[in-house]
Design goal:
The complex is a heterodimer of chains A (190) and B (102). Chain A has 190 residues and is mainly α. Helices cover 67% and strands 0% of the residues of chain A. Among the domains of chain A are: 94 residues; 36 residues. Chain A is built from seven helices and no strands. The longest helix of chain A has 25 residues. The N and C termini of chain A lie far apart (73 Å). In chain B, helix 1 runs antiparallel to helix 2 and helix 2 runs antiparallel to helix 3. Chain B has 102 residues and is mainly α. The chains are: A mainly alpha (190), B mainly alpha (102).
């Protein structure tokens, strides 16, 4: 009996292979767009698209709980934090695209159609989760038992991050008389 | 034609390279933070790929757990980093971290 068993076979189902390739190409493209775009708002939008594409990739190769967490928690929290930053600074206020402009309506409609399509496919066929992701042990059970300490540490880290970012944002800033920012220290050269 | 460990690892490496490029080549604090996020995502993707197709497949939930932890740490880092970026913006009315743009 070999010490190490045979490796799992790669995905060979044609639709699933096409899906993985498509998602990977789109993921790399959106990631590249995110770091190359000059407009911060568009860069953040490309980043959010990348997170959604990562969730779609996990749908093919990972437990469904990870897909749900990636899609519902990580993507939502990241997009909300980034949008909050832009709203707190300057990005969203100077956007030339109105709230009810055709761009927003088309984007919302396309997103709604994509999510509805995904929900219908998952609800009707359980594809591709059922086809590829039968794991030997429950993901939630492993998280709750083997990694209970890790989850506790993670909760502490997340709480510390929330507290730290809150304290940073609450820090007072001296307003310059010219409205540019803080007053420079004496002797400091601009 | 198939999709296996090699494809996902190459994609993970490419994603990591894109993140490094964002951190090194761009001056905006927001874009640099997005670059670090892509590096986290690349690491998580490699974990998941090894758990699904590699020797770790006998404990497939372990790779997904690591990806979950990496994602949560990335979100925490993003929150703190963006708070710092907001402070930088308050000071300089710009997200640029370059000293020339100070």
């Amino acid at each position: 009996m070999p010490l190490i068993g045979a490796l799992p076979q790669p995905i060979t189902s044609a639709p699933l292979v096409f899906f993985v390739y498509l998602v990977l190409i789109l993921l790399l493209g959106s990631a590249l767009a995110s770091v190359l775009l000059r407009n911060t708002l568009y860069a953040i939008a490309a980043f959010a698209v990348s997170l959604v594409l990562v969730a779609l990739l996990y749908l093919a190769i990972a437990p469904f709980l990870l897909v749900a967490v990636q899609l519902l928690v990580f993507t939502t929290v990241s997009a909300a934090v980034l949008s909050g930053l832009l709203r707190a600074t300057t990005g969203l206020r100077t956007s030339s695209v109105g709230r009810l402009s055709p761009e927003w309506i088309i984007g919302a409609a396309v997103s709604a159609v994509m999510f509805a399509l995904l929900a219908v496919v998952l609800g009707a066929t359980a594809w591709p989760v059922q086809a590829c992701c039968a794991l030997p042990e429950s993901f939630g059970g492993v998280l709750g038992s083997t990694y209970a300490v890790g989850l506790a540490v993670l909760a502490v880290i997340l709480g510390s991050a929330a507290l730290g970012s809150g304290l940073l944002l609450a820090a007072p800033t001296l307003i310059s008389p010219r409205g540019g920012g803080s007053t420079p220290a004496r002797g400091a050269r601009r | 034609m198939n999709a296996g460990l090699n494809l996902l690892l190459v994609s993970s490496a490419a994603l990591f390279a894109i993140g490094v490029f964002g951190v090194v080549a761009r001056r905006s604090a927001v874009i640099m933070l997005l670059g670090t996020q892509f590096m986290f995502i690349a690491g998580a993707l490699a974990f998941v790929a090894f758990a699904r197709f590699g020797l770790g497949a006998r404990h497939g939930a372990a790779g997904a757990s690591m990806a979950l932890f990496a994602g949560a740490i990335a979100v925490a880092e993003l929150a703190v980093g963006l708070a710092m970026a907001a402070l930088v913006y308050r000071e300089h009315r710009s997200f640029a971290l370059d000293a020339d743009r100070g």
